[in-house]
Specification:
The complex is a heterodimer of chains A (390) and B (194). In chain A, helix 1 crosses helix 2 (161-172), helix 3 (191-205) packs antiparallel against helix 4 (223-236) and helix 3 packs antiparallel against helix 7 (285-297). Chain A has two domains: 21-188 and 300-389, 3-Layer(aba) Sandwich (Rossmann fold); 196-291, Orthogonal Bundle (Rna Polymerase Sigma Factor, Chain: A), CATH 1.10.1740. In chain A, the strands form four sheets. Chain A has an eight-stranded mixed sheet with strand order 1-4-8-5-9-10-13-14, sandwiched between helices. Chain A has helices spanning 134-147, 161-172, 191-205, 223-236, 240-246, 267-282, 285-297, 308-311, 332-344, 368-389; strands at 21-25, 29-30, 36-37, 40-47, 57-61, 86-87, 92-93, 98-102, 155-159, 179-183, 251-253, 265-266, 318-324, 349-354. Helix content of chain A is 33%, strand content 15%. Chain A is α/β, with parallel strands linked by helices. Chain B is an alpha/beta fold. Chain B has a single domain (6-111, 144-172, 186-193), classed as 3-Layer(aba) Sandwich (Rossmann fold). Chain B is 30% helix and 25% strand. Chain B is built from seven helices and seven strands; from the N terminus they run βαβαββαβααβααβ. Chain B has helices at residues 27-36, 47-55, 92-102, 116-125, 149-158, 176-179, 181-184, and strands at residues 17-21, 39-44, 60-62, 77-83, 103-111, 162-170, 185-193. Chain B has a seven-stranded mixed sheet, with helices on both faces. Chain B is globular. Classes of the chains: A alpha/beta (390), B alpha/beta (194). At the A-B interface, helix 9, strand 14 and helix 10 of A face helix 2 and strand 3 of B.
Amino acid sequence: MSPDCSLSSSPDNLLGATVPQTAAINRPMDLVCGATLPSHSLVFETHGSLNKARSNAILICHALSGDHHVAGINTEGKVGWWDHYIGPGKAIDTTKFFVVCPNNIGSCFGSTGPTSNNPRTGKVYGDSFPSIQVRDWVESQKYLMDHLKIECWAAVIGGSLGGMQAMCWSLAYPDKLKHAVVIAAAMKLSAQNIAFNEIARRAIQSDIEFKEGHYLDYETSPTQGLALARMIGHLTYLSDDALHRKFGRLVHSGDLDTTEKELSEFEVASYLNYQGDKFSQRFDANSYILITKMLDHFDLSQNYNDNPAKVFVHAQCQFLVVSFSSDWRFSPLCSEQITDSLVSAGKAVSYIKIETDQGHDAFLLPNSRYQKAVSLYLSRVSNELEEISL
Amino acid sequence: MINDIGPIGAWIEPKSRLLDLGCGDGTLLRRLIDDYQVQGYGLEIDPNSINQCIQKGLNVIEQDLNKGLENFSDNSFDTVLMSQTLQALRHPHLVLDEMLRIGNRCIVTFPNFGHWQTRSFLAIRGRMPVTKQLAYQWYDTPNIHLFTYKDFEALCSERSIKILKRSFVGSQLLGLNSLCPSLFAKIAVYHLAK
């Protein structure tokens, strides 16, 4: 559920220019919903280099609105969404690890999704793109893993919906990853979370330009609805304290002391409007609906009689679980439930709760304790690799 | 901290499940994993200590013992261990009950406030003792519940907690430690059951 991540230029960016690659998967892929994707392509970015044993690869899983551009600067001059954490000497050290980050299917940054052409009809998928689940993203990432001839991930790492993918990996392919780093995630969404997603979808669907999902045929776009959906989402990724600290009652334009004060705009309103508008220019409405539904339907314990203690029985990897104190969208309680389930199942797990006022957004932002803990954990992962190769 | 694990090792079944409450930098837990291959988890609240545990490759879980242990189910561990932490808890007796609910057996270690050095510090100087074991001033000490091993045994008897074994760490001179633990034991170590 990553918020818009075009961070301002990062002075410590050490990766430089990055160019995405594309993997064409020309085999049909059966989706959980029963539909089949005849073929699909995945756009992905890599950083660092694969060692001889091909054992140092780390898969980074993006969240709701994320993409493959995870670190470095792309051709448009944009810094990657997790550049604070990925690079030489950073928490995910690209001098030690080969970092792979794909844009997932159903999204809209180059991988097959609602804006792609359906090879069966020759027309754009639009709202006919089949419904997808987290398990499908994992399956598609497995194709990419095979494409890159990687036998086992040193770690699968993700925040929010990305953390759900990491957990799903540990159950779908238990012997294909050594570590899972699950950040600000949950085993399933709460009613409140689903409600926020429904409001966002309703905002999009109510836009007259939505045309029941066929807006591409009409060469239009429900930007107003998408902006509104994003404004709601973005607000829930922040905490009340952080909003107060950043904006308080600052006025962006106009003057509260004059008779025309109703014409003035608060800073927080200007910020949210800006975020909404920017997002509506870069994201596809059908993708947003598809992926929020995917979040709603994610339920890790569904196949285990809703018994969280049973869920991780088949997992083989080690886990690091991270939460943020002021995250009310995926609260620390959700991460603690994951941790408790892992302990019940007797799995190796460490859990940290980072004190911050930055809310759910915190998983993307610099934080010295968070950076240090991830860095120490991954040093362990890299030391294990060295021990194996000796 | 006890660097020498003393009698604790003998009370731990190899390859058993162990929960270490307030595991600190993980030195003891690491030792128990290396020597007894236990499946160990440590609970800790201090970020620096947690980092050191992560570095040592331990399973460390950030959790405040004062906020309860309800997330752990009954008899889910073979042993629940608490080393030098009981005196720093808000409700030591309630945590002790919880330990015995979660573990089949419990191991507790704590500084014996009845040691002659602490007694004489208070008796002669008239000031709250500051010793190697209790190295804080009264106003900033985390050790908010100071007690002697006799106090502890009285609590065990009140709450029908079985003392399986006990051991004392302190002066080895002339065996004073075991002859008169009330005065000479620096640290008391207990093996407990329901």
